[in-house]
Design brief:
Elements (H helix, E strand, L loop, with lengths): L4 H20 L16 E3 L14 E4 L4 E4 L2 E2 H7 L2 H10 L5 H15 L2 H7 L9 H14 L28 E4 L3 E4 L14 H8 L1 H22 L13 H10 L5 H13 L7 H10 L5 H12 L7 H12 L5 H10 L17 H14 L3 H25 L5 H11 L7 H21 L24
Antiparallel strand pairs: 1-6, 2-3, 3-4, 5-6
The chain binds acetyl coenzyme *A.
Acetyl coenzyme *A (ACO) binds next to helix 16 and helix 17.
C-alpha cells in the first residue's frame, strides 16, 4: 500500500465529483415545510412509501443518490470530518466547537471501558454465538447496569395504550395496481403530548445512554471477536481515536494512520440512513417507552438479517466462491436461472448508484494494492458489478449498495468475515440513538394495521 492518508481525502472528493456529474448535479431541495398531520401517502408492500414520522437527522434521495446528515452531504463528512464529530452532529443537530468535541471524545472513551459488561458476557457461551447474537445480549447487559434505577414513569399512560384492535374492521382501501394501496388518514383529535423528564430518563433514553451505547457496542464487538479467536478482551488505549481503538481492541495492534482513517470513513458513512429496517425497529421499540438499550438491541437484531446488514458477509462468500473475474459471467447466469437475489445489489430506496458504495469501492481498490489475493477478490467484485448492472441495471435499476464493497474494506483492515455486520452496527448505533432521542420529543407509539384477508363465521368444532 503506497498511498497515504492525504490520498483518502482526494479519493472521497473524486467520488463526490463523479456523483455530482452522474446523479446529483441539481440544486438541493428547499427545506421542507413542517407537515400538518395526519397526512396522506401511498403505501406499498413492506410499508414502501409510508412516512412514519418527521426527522431532521438525515435525508436520503434514492433517485439522485444523495445522502445527507443534518444538512451536510456524506462526501464532505467523509472527506473532512471524523466519526466522533459525526456522532456529535447526529445527536445534537450541529457540528461541535473544538472544546465540545474534545469533551465528547473523552466521554466516548470513558464509556468504551465496559469491563463489567464484558465480564458478565463471559459468563455466557459467547464462543458458540454469532457476534451479532452476543451483541444483542451485550446491549441488554449494558441496560442491566442500571436495573436498580427503574423508570416509574415508563409505564404506559392510559391514552398511549392501543384502544381497540381495528384489524377486523373493513378499511378504506382503494387498490392501485396489484402492488399498491392508498390509505386515507382520517383526522383524529390529537392527544396530549407526553414529555419525558430529562433528569429521570437520561440514563435510559437520553444523551448519556446514547454515548454509552455508541462506545459500548464497539467494545463488546471487539471483546466477543477476541474470545472467538481464543484471546482475552482488550481495554481501549487512551489517546487513540474511536476508529483506531476499534481496530486495536479487535486486532491487538495499533493501526497505521491510513487504516485508522479508512475505518473512520467507514464508520462515518454507515452512521445513518433514513428509515431503514433497523432504524425503524429501534424506533418502534423506543416508541413504547422501552428504554434505549432495548431499542438498540432490536436494531441490532434487524440489522443481522441477510437482506439488511448481513448482506456484506454474503458478498465476500460469493466473491470467494466465484474465485476470479473470468468465472463471473457463468456464476451470474447460474444465480439468475435460480432466481436468486445477488447480495450487495439493489435497494428499496436507491434507484441510482449508492453514494456509500462510490466511496467504499475506491477504498477497497486502494487497500487491495500490492496484495495479489485481495486484488483478485477486488477485480472479481468489479467484474461482478459490471455483469449485474449490464444484466439488470437498466431494467431494474440495480446498483451496488453499501454492503457490496464494505466486506473487502473490513477484510483488508484485518477483520474476520463475522465482524462485517457488527462493524455496521458499531457505526449505525449513532443514527439509531439520534433518531430515538429525536422521536422522544414528540413520541407516539407506532401501531400500524394489517389488512385482514382471512375468513369469518367459521363454526368451532372441539378437537375430539
Ligand atoms: N439481485 C437480483 N435481483 C434483484 C436484487 C438483487 N440483489 N434486488 C432486487 N432485485 C429485483 C427483484 O427480484 C425485483 O424484480 P421483479 O420486479 O422482476 O420482481 C426488483 O429487483 C425489485 O426488488 P424488490 O425485491 O422488490 O426490492 P425490495 O425493495 O423489496 O428489496 C433489497 C430491497 C432487500 C435490498 C433487495 O434488493 C435485496 O434482497 N438485495 C440483496 C440483499 C442486499 O444486498 N441487502 C443489503 C441492502 S443495503 C442495506 O440494507 C444496508
Amino acid at each position: 500500500m503506497k498511498s497515504g492518508v492525504h490520498e483518502l481525502q482526494s479519493i472521497v472528493l473524486k467520488a463526490a465529483e463523479k456523483a455530482k456529474k452522474e446523479t446529483i448535479n441539481e440544486p438541493a431541495p428547499e427545506t421542507p415545510k413542517k407537515q400538518k398531520w395526519p397526512i396522506s401517502c401511498t403505501v406499498g408492500p413492506g410499508l414502501e412509501g409510508a412516512i412514519a414520522c418527521e426527522s431532521s437527522v438525515g435525508y436520503v434521495n434514492g433517485a439522485k443518490g444523495w445522502l445527507v446528515y443534518r444538512g451536510y452531504n456524506i462526501f464532505d463528512l467523509c472527506a473532512y470530518s471524523s466519526y466522533e464529530e459525526t456522532c456529535y452532529l447526529l445527536l445534537h443537530g450541529k457540528t461541535p466547537k473544538k472544546d465540545e468535541l474534545a469533551q465528547f471524545k473523552e466521554r466516548l472513551f470513558d464509556y468504551t471501558k465496559v469491563n463489567n459488561v464484558v465480564r458478565r458476557l463471559l459468563g455466557f457461551p459467547i464462543e458458540e454465538m454469532s457476534v451479532m447474537g452476543a451483541l444483542r445480549l451485550g446491549t441488554n447487559l449494558m441496560r442491566s447496569r442500571y436495573s436498580d434505577f427503574d423508570m416509574k414513569q415508563a409505564s404506559p399512560a392510559g391514552f398511549d395504550a392501543v384502544g381497540a384492535d381495528e384489524d377486523s374492521f373493513a378499511m378504506e382501501t382503494v387498490p392501485l395496481g396489484s402492488n399498491h394501496a392508498t390509505y386515507e388518514f382520517k383526522p383524529k383529535k390529537r392527544r396530549k403530548k407526553v414529555k419525558l423528564k430529562k433528569h429521570e430518563f437520561d440514563k435510559f433514553v437520553g444523551e448519556e445512554a446514547a454515548i454509552s451505547l455508541i462506545a459500548g457496542i464497539s467494545a463488546i464487538i471487539a471483546a466477543v471477536s477476541r474470545v472467538h479467536n481464543g484471546k482475552l478482551p482488550l481495554e481501549p488505549l487512551p489517546g487513540l481515536s474511536h476508529a483506531a481503538n476499534l481496530i486495536y481492541m479487535v486486532t491487538g495492534r495499533k493501526p497505521t494512520p491510513l487504516e485508522e482513517r479508512v475505518m473512520d470513513i467507514a464508520l462515518i458513512l454507515h452512521a445513518d440512513h433514513g428509515m431503514n429496517a433497523s432504524t425503524f425497529a429501534t424506533l418502534v421499540v423506543g416508541s413504547t417507552l422501552a428504554d434505549i438499550y432495548y431499542s438498540v438491541g432490536s436494531g441490532v437484531a434487524a440489522l443481522s438479517g441477510p437482506l439488511h446488514g448481513g448482506a456484506n458477509e454474503q458478498v465476500m462468500k460469493n466473491l470467494r466462491e466465484i474465485g476470479s473475474k473470468e468465472n463471473v459471467a457463468e456464476w451470474v447466469n447460474k444465480k439468475t436461472a435460480q432466481k436468486s437475489k445477488i447480495a450487495g445489489f439493489g435497494h428499496r430506496v436507491y434507484k441510482a448508484y449508492d453514494p456509500r458504495a462510490r466511496i467504499l469501492g475506491p477504498l477497497a481498490a486502494l487497500l487491495s494494492e500490492g496484495d495479489p489475493e485481495k486484488k483478485k477478490l477486488f477485480q472479481t467484485a468489479v467484474e461482478l458489478e459490471r455483469a449485474v448492472m449490464e444484466k439488470f441495471g437498466e431494467e431494474k435499476k440495480l446498483f451496488p449498495n453499501v454492503d457490496f464493497y464494505s466486506g473487502l474494506v473490513y477484510s483488508a483492515l484485518g477483520f474476520d468475515d463475522e465482524l462485517f455486520t457488527p462493524m455496521f452496527a458499531a457505526s449505525r448505533v449513532a443514527g439509531w440513538t439520534s433518531r430515538v432521542l429525536e422521536y422522544m420529543d414528540n413520541n407516539r407509539i407506532f401501531r400500524p394495521r394489517s389488512l385482514y384477508v382471512g375468513e369469518f363465521n367459521k363454526k368451532y368444532t372441539p378437537p375430539d
